[in-house]
Amino acid sequence: MTTWGDHAILWQVYPLGFTGAERTALPDGEPARHRLGQLERWLDYAVELGCNGLLLGPIFASESHGYDTTDHFRIDARLGDENDFDALVAAADQRGLRLILDGVFNHVGRRFPPFQAALHGGPASPAARWFKHSANGDYAVFEGHDQLVELDHDEPAVLGYVIEVMSHWLGRGAGGWRLDAAYAVPPAFWAKTIPAVRESFPDAWFLGEMIHGDYAAYANEAGLDSITQYEVWKAIWSALNDRNLFELDHALGRHNSFLDGELAQTFVGNHDVTRLATQLTDDRHFGHALAVLMCIGGVPSVYYGDEQGFRGLKEHRAGGDDEIRPAFPASAAELAPDGWRYYRLHQRLIGFRRRHPWLVRARTAAEHLTDSAMALRVSGAEPGQSALLLLNVGDDPVQFAVDTTGLTVAEIPDPGAIPADPRTVAPHSWTILA
Fold first, then answer.
1. pLDDT per residue over 54-77, tens digit each?
2. CATH of residue 123
3. Does 347 fall in a domain?
4. Where are the alpha helices (DSSP H) in 96-199?
5. How far apart are CA 151 and CA 139, in angstroms?
6. Residue 410 in contact with residue 365, Cβ under 8 Å?
7. What is the spatial distance between Cα 251 and Cα 234, in angstroms, rounded to a whole number?
8. Is residue 366 part of a domain?
9. Are both 185 and 261 inside the same structural domain?
10. How sure is the predictor about 214, in pLDDT bands with cuts at 50, 70 and 90?
11. Whole-structure pTM over 0.90, yes or no?
12. Residue 367 located in a structural domain
């Protein structure tokens, strides 16, 4: 049985960066800055790109970057208020875009009211039971970040709180949740949370952030619809940079097994990693990365700005995310002219994906493989559901000895230059046959 996720292509946006919001929370009493409206003006752009889902970064009240939440029931004043959220939902609904919210439920900011109550009430207070404690008796923090206090997911009050938050915003029109740092939360917690929420919102979609661990087993135990596929993300750019397509083949073999259960959420860029155009050492391979993304199984997402070839380096320091979370201009007319070639490439490859919706659950197998050349057979569950992705990252043309019966050229870098022999791929080029 298909679900919304089977047809989802997401445009991921980090709202605090996208709108040019202040780096830290507004002082108490300051009027809200109604910036969510800026995002409304880009919804048509997302639809024209080919997306039907808007995957938002944090929008709730926080101390700084959004992942240090202080109030899950209030829109961050740097972005606006609940009326702005309602207007964004209405505008998205008109365009067939589903909003997926970023739920930071593993940890909270130090100004989170229950944590303040725990500090004032002491370790024996009811509020103190909301939070984990470290071996030395202090409150535990997430991955060494002192401002991120970890919730105790064995505490019934925390379970009730998360169910209430999720239900509140789904009731206001959200379509699902991305669960930040899901890998740090016991899967049994989500296994209790998600069914309780689905009693009222059966169509809600849940994506868990997984960076390490057994993706498929975790997603199955937690009851998630999807999990982030960091293995494939890394293999795509690394294999292209090193001209080692065996690495990509290995990752895609593991990816096939993940697709036996929940749908993986696939990407070549997001709010936490160096941008693809910066990560790649050869810009000629940008299209290769995107072609892989749009040909393999899973729920693909495009990180805002990647569709314009934005550059940005992730650095592990204070402010190290700034380059990868920039402000967008007021309108598309203000984007750099050179970026539109990346946008048009995204449109074409997303269009190919739309014309072959079976790709969401497709499996792949390499039929020709060297360090710098790969013929990837992509197969669906039904007869006739077949495609070939031919990748060449070498300096010489490659003629692939593969069966192309019933297949024709579907996409190439230059749609005006279809080769006489579709099995021959020029240096640093690619071809999709379907």
1. 999 999 999 999 999 999 999 999
2. 3.90.400.10
3. yes
4. 113-121, 156-171, 187-198
5. 9
6. no
7. 9
8. no
9. yes
10. confident
11. yes
12. no
pLDDT in tens, 151-168: 999 999 999 999 999 999
On whether both 141 and 164 belong to a single domain, the answer is no
* Token reading at 179: 């669960």
Residues 6+ away with beta carbon under 8 Å from 219: 208, 210, 226, 227, 261, 262
Asked whether the beta carbons of 84 and 34 are under 8 A apart, the reply is yes
Q: Write the CA distances from 355 to 152, 318, 351, 352, integer angstroms.
A: 45, 43, 6, 5
Residue with tokens 């535990």: 140
Q: What is the CA radius of gyration of the chain?
A: 22
The CA distance from 131 to 152, in Å, is 5
Backbone angles phi, psi at 139, to 5 degrees: -70, 135
Tokens of 46: 């997302």
| Residue 301 bridge partners (DSSP) | 10, 267
Q: What is the DSSP string of 80-124?
A: --HHHHHHHHHHHHHTTPEEEEEE--SEEETT-HHHHHHHHH-TT
Token duo for residue 53: 């889902």
- Whether 170 and 208 share a structural domain: yes
CATH number assigned to the domain comprising residue 415: 2.60.40
Tell me, yes or no, whether 174 and 308 share the same domain: yes
Two tokens, residue 265: 């959420």
137: domain range?
Answer: 107-152
Phi/psi at 131 (5° precision): -125, 145
Bridge partners of 131, per DSSP, are: 151
H/E stretch holding 45 reads helix 43-49
Q: Which two tokens stand for residue 350?
A: 């997303």
